[in-house]
């Protein structure tokens, strides 16, 4: 792969096109944090269930993939951007610009959520914290694993050399997010997204073991991205499947 391909110069058709991509990443991440973290807030006498939170995150991400996927790819997650860069699906230039847009969107989403929610209900705004029965290292392992699951799914449903996908990406990615949240919400809060963790942490100043939510997802994404590219990538001459 040449230097221009790695940099992704050809991906940037115009400043207008790049601006649309960055706006899509900003808005997509903002709405992810607003709706997803909003589902973590207890409005009644009982806290929302793990299943409710998992479904909310899975559905809002599926909706965003359907809405802005054709504009920016709808990464809305620095770990996804890293994984797709390693897979060769996005150049370095866009990848470097996507991450600040995602982080800014996450902080904006958390700020908007805080504005919408009455003060007595504002506690952590869905901030992710490591369960005190595990170590931070175990938290990294959990976050790395669930992010790797996400990246394997994203890699598969966006593989340009597959012809059996139709419009599978929103549903498949949403399901992956939902099942990983069902597993990991009680353990780490199931961030699997450094920007999603950053938004509430920045607004509410909840920084306990925040590094876990960068190291774990980025590590899992990097490994899964390399595995998909080296092992699971569809062959270019794939036209049909033998039944």
From TrEMBL:
Protein name: Putative aquaporin aqpae.a
GO cellular component, one term: plasma membrane
Subunit structure and binding partners: Homotetramer.
Alphabetized GO MF terms: channel activity
PROSITE patterns documented for this protein: MIP (PS00221)
Recorded family membership: Belongs to the MIP/aquaporin (TC 1.A.8) family.
Positions of transmembrane segments: 21-44, 50-74, 95-117, 137-157, 169-191, 211-231
Biological source species: Rhodnius neglectus
């Amino acid at each position: 792969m040449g230097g221009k391909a790695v940099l992704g110069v050809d991906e940037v058709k115009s400043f207008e096109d790049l601006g649309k991509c960055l706006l899509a990443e900003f808005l997509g991440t903002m709405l992810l944090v607003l709706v997803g973290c909003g589902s973590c807030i207890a409005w009644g006498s009982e806290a929302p269930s793990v299943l409710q939170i998992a479904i909310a995150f899975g559905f809002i991400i599926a909706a965003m993939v359907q809405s802005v996927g054709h504009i920016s790819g709808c990464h809305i997650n620095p770990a996804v951007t890293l994984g797709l860069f390693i897979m060769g699906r996005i150049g370095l230039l866009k990848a470097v610009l996507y991450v600040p847009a995602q982080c800014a969107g996450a902080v904006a989403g958390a700020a908007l959520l805080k504005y919408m929610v009455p003060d007595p209900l504002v506690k952590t705004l869905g901030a992710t914290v490591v369960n005190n029965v595990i170590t931070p290292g175990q938290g990294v392992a959990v976050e790395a694993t669930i992010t790797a699951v996400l990246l394997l799914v994203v890699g598969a449903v966006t593989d340009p050399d597959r012809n059996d996908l139709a419009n599978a990406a929103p549903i498949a990615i949403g399901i992956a997010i939902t099942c990983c949240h069902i597993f990991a919400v009680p353990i780490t809060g199931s961030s699997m997204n450094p920007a999603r963790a950053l938004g509430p942490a920045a607004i509410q100043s909840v920084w306990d073991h925040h590094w876990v939510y960068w190291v774990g997802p980025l590590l899992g994404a990097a490994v899964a991205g390399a595995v998909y590219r080296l092992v699971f990538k569809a062959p270019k001459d794939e036209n049909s499947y033998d039944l």
